[in-house]
Amino acid sequence: MKAKHQRLILALVALAALIGAALLAASALKDEAAYFYTPSDAKTKGVEPGKAIRLGGMVVKGSLHRAADGVTVRFDVTDNKATVPATFTGIAPDLFREGSGVVAEGAFDRSGTFVATNLLAKHDERYMPRELEGMTYNETTHEMGPEMGKEK
Amino acid sequence: MIAEAGLAALWLAAALALLQLALAWFGLVGGKDDLLSAMRPVAVAQGMLTAAAFLLLITLFVQSDMSVALVATNSHSMKPWLYKVAGTWGNHEGSMLLWVTVMGVAGAAVALFERALRRDTHMATLGAQAAISLGFYAFLLFASNPFARLDPAPPDGQGLNPLLQDPGLAFHPPTLYIGYVGLSVAFSFAVGALLTRRVDAAFAKAMRPWVLAAWIMLTLGITAGSYWAYYELGWGGWWFWDPVENASLMPWLAATALLHSATVLATRDALRAWTIMLAVVAFSMSMVGTFLVRSGILTSVHAFAVDPQRGTFILGLLALYIGGALALFGFRIGTVREGAQFELVSRETMLVVNNLLLTVILGLVLIGTLYPLMTEAFGHKVSVGPPYFDRIVGPITLVLVIAMAGGPLTRWRKDRAKAVGGRMLIPAIILLAAAIAVSALAWGRIGVLPFLGLIIAAAVAVGSVAPLWKRNLRRTPLFTWGMVIAHLGCAVSLAGMASDSAFTVEKLVAAKPGETISTAGWTLRFDRIVPVAGDNWTALQGDMTVWRGNGAPIAIHPQSRFFTNPPTTTTEAALLTRWNGQLYVVLGQEAERGRWQLRIWWKPFVTLIWLGGIMIALGGALALLGRERRGWMMKIRKRSALA
């Protein structure tokens, strides 16, 4: 009887832990998982300022400007439907350039500028952020195309 | 010729695996235990053939034989020798051959060295190992042939991804794979025990050293991979919750849980079904990881190629083996006798808590990793990033670490809550003292998690050593030493993580040569930019001099490297290690007016993260050695008794 009692307690604790974990995961996923946005997602759905997200798209040609401090860049991110301004302070990846795909991690500020804390560009010519698959830059650039991310 | 020999060795190994499976079948069905002695040489030969195939592939890479497609697409004749060798597994086919080789050699080791297992269980285990191997031989031979020829042969190869051209490549994948695939032995043991209905303490005692060995390698592989990412990517971070990192963490979590539940089964004959389940889950996680990485379903530095066909193949293997093992579990678990009972306040309960928390973390990481794939199936592109993982894994890990300190301070079978509380008194006092000290030092400057991490690390460090209290240290078994050191390693690692996120100082500037920058007690003089060249790269190198306070100046040389095959730029950070932290300097891009971007971090005690990882593995090694030594002692005693 006693042993049975204790098994029951253990089983209940285990069950409670599992339910707790599931609730935790559900709430964390609800808050954090809608994490990737394209510029048009951001425009249509609206992202509250300060919420950490990933913004993915192409760097608009001619939009890349370097600030006087030498470590801040300003650029526009587009998915051909919408365009949002972004800034980044730090060392940009080597493959971060105009007309190239980028995934920026950060948050929008109150003025609607995306303040990136980290830029993910492709690591090499075979790597393409998965979220950007199928996205191409309209102007003909030699950089990007729909064949990105595939073996040559 | 070499490529053909390699392919032949693989086919032969696959045929031997089939023979091994057949022998196990006839042995078990016919009740002929003596077939085990026939299986042993088959398993050993199979292991040797896979090893031979692997060595032949390395030879092809070293010779830069461009008529082999794999060499042509992944190597280059101008590459340094070390990266020709390590490049063998820096691609899909080569890494799968490494996988199969580890599996074959592990099977051979089980055939040669396992003596504690009953003969019928041993046969069933070897049969299960052969059955898993067969699937991966098929995958290699039909979907990922590493020895395929290319006609006509190109004049030179396409080269290896420069991010991989690092000594880390020589160490990280092989250790990780030995750990990953070593868990297949635990899986085969579990299947063998279920088939022969031998789930008991003796079985757990036999299985534990194999789990321990795989777990040690897995720990080392993850630690090495984390440090490699830390210095090679130049981002200053040591864990990114990349799906592929998660793929290596999940088997580790399962193996850690298995290690502890196997100890309960071996010592107290409890948790029978659960231990079998964990053994199945651990290797299943290895296979899920392989599927995630090798199918190209995820993008990552680790995903070499996108090939849906291969993904489907691995998914099929996954369904076959995991489904098969779970079905066997379902059919047979009813016949497994109920294990021994234990009281609520006992070490068994603490280890159940440990297992529960590890499993919960495993589940949450698995959900976070698979969630994007699941939502994508419904047409949404969602990514789950570090905020999710930090938020849920952080707090649970802290609870887990506290339980880890409490476990060894609780007695087996039955203990009194009051007595346990008394033993936890000193760690509790340390917790309080650390809380006061850290608050006084850095109140308001650090977040809640790093704060808790620091004080819990201090308390758990003391709690981990507490089992040695009042013991004769010379007579303390190596196994206990191993446990203490591994647990202490967890506390050390946690302290490093918390310190890194609480106290790291970062400075980002654009500076001209000749300028001096000060941060976190360090002074850095940017002397000049010089071009330098290596075997297959050229670089811009920043010559800099750093000193701390009035200390001696030290020259450092961060680089920005350009590789030509394939054309890529990598960052070579300059790292300066001191006992109390690391200075991490990255040379960025050229800014206007002759300035260069510089990023400087001072990371107090960051090295503790990997030191802790090494301690955990060392603890495992001591525990393994302790077991083996006891075996030798018994043998010696037996012999002297006979003489």
TrEMBL record, chain A:
Residues 29-152 are extracellular. GO terms for biological process: cytochrome complex assembly; protein-heme linkage. Its main location: membrane. Heme chaperone required for the biogenesis of c-type cytochromes. Transiently binds heme delivered by CcmC and transfers the heme to apo-cytochromes in a process facilitated by CcmF and CcmH. Gene3D superfamilies: Nucleic acid-binding proteins. The lineage of its organism: Bacteria, Pseudomonadati, Pseudomonadota, Alphaproteobacteria, Sphingomonadales. One of its GO terms (cellular component) is plasma membrane. Keywords: Cell membrane, Cytochrome c-type biogenesis, Heme, Iron, Membrane, Metal-binding, Signal, Signal-anchor, Transmembrane, Transmembrane helix. Residues 1-25 form the signal peptide. Belongs to the CcmE/CycJ family. Heme binds at H123, Y127. It is found in: Cell membrane; Membrane. This is Cytochrome c-type biogenesis protein CcmE. GO terms for molecular function: heme binding; metal ion binding. It is a single-pass type II membrane protein. Pfam families: CcmE. Residues 1-7 are cytoplasmic. Transmembrane segments: none annotated. InterPro entries: CcmE, CcmE-like_sf, NA-bd_OB-fold. SUPFAM superfamilies: Heme chaperone CcmE. It comes from Sphingobium phenoxybenzoativorans.
